[in-house]
Design brief:
This protein has about 180 residues and is mainly beta. The protein is about 10% helix and about 65% strand. It is built from one helix and nine strands, in the order αβββββββββ. A hairpin with a 2-residue loop joins β7 and β8.
Length: about 180
């Protein structure tokens, strides 16, 4: 987990530094960081939906195109016939967003698509005959694609409310709905 946070911080720092190094002075303010609450559908049958957290950031590479990176934390838990099952998924998504040109500046509509690298872990705890538990876990990394669409509504010069829906086409595919706040700089 610590490794993922360090990688994400490095990517966000690189995006920020790239924006400052390559943007012209009149184009500053084209970067953002955001945080969202995430509702995720079940990744496999037998699980319920869950609520997670997404942090991300992006920089405008053209007038209507944003390059971005998102890191999401999701966990599902269920019990089956006395066995406790925990499924955690930590996807890192590298994507592009296309903002549909509109006359209204406060509301931006976008479509996006990206590649997802998902760090997945499944843990099982089953009661044994002696009153304890037998535990097992398995970790894996999966690669997938993530199309989506959303809205960005400005509430102040540097703040906006963002919301989007994404379809995570990957092993144990699932949908997410996200809503949060973005800070533009």
């Amino acid at each position: 987990m610590k490794r993922i946070v360090i990688i994400t911080a490095a990517v966000l720092l690189a995006l920020s530094a790239g924006t400052q190094a390559f943007a012209k002075s009149e184009q500053m303010g084209n970067a953002e960081v955001d945080a969202s609450l995430v509702w995720a559908s079940a990744p496999a049958s037998g699980f319920d939906s869950t609520i997670g957290l997404c942090i991300g950031g992006g920089t405008m590479v053209d007038k209507d195109i944003q390059a971005r990176v998102d890191l999401t934390f999701l966990t599902w838990s269920e019990s089956f016939f006395g066995a406790d099952l925990d499924y955690s998924r930590t996807p890192i998504t590298v994507s592009g967003r296309y903002y549909v040109p509109m006359e209204q500046n406060d509301l931006k509509v976008f479509v996006q698509g990206g590649l997802e690298l998902s760090f997945d872990k499944v843990e099982v705890a089953m009661p044994d005959f002696f009153g304890g538990y037998v535990k097992a876990s398995e970790s894996d990394v999966h690669l997938g694609i993530t199309p989506g669409a959303g809205l960005d509504f400005a509430i102040a010069p540097q703040l906006s409310i963002v919301a989007d829906v994404r379809w995570h086409i990957i092993t144990d595919s699932y949908f997410t709905l996200q809503a949060g706040v973005a800070y533009h700089f």
